[in-house]
Predict the structure.
Amino acid sequence: MNDDLYEDPIRQRLREHLEAMLIRADKAASWREETGRLRGLVNHDGFVPIRTRLSTEDLDFLADARDDLLTFTELGLRLLDLHQPRDAGGITSDHAHPILRCRSCMWRWPCPTFRAFSDSFGPAPALPESA
């Protein structure tokens, strides 16, 4: 069997699911600008009565958005649990900065998986300087 041609059916199903989520999200309209205006409309019960025109793509996206976000959050946490640094155990002259490897894939830290994951969220926010 040629490993280059084999496609894991579970991997394929996951890829199709992710691609479908991407298509739904891409077709749906962003609510980012509307949320600022809508916050001013919160009634005494804590809800916003809205009237808007939603396309079928928007409805498809909104129907699954919460579950999709929960799934991605769980995936992200699992990736962080799997791909974390550990001391490589090598000899180093810089004891403050030991050589690190990924606990899961054993690449030098940060590993490609962690870099791809962290790059997806953009640069880390700057930490406040201590006084």
Observations:
- Strands lie at 85-87, 100-102.
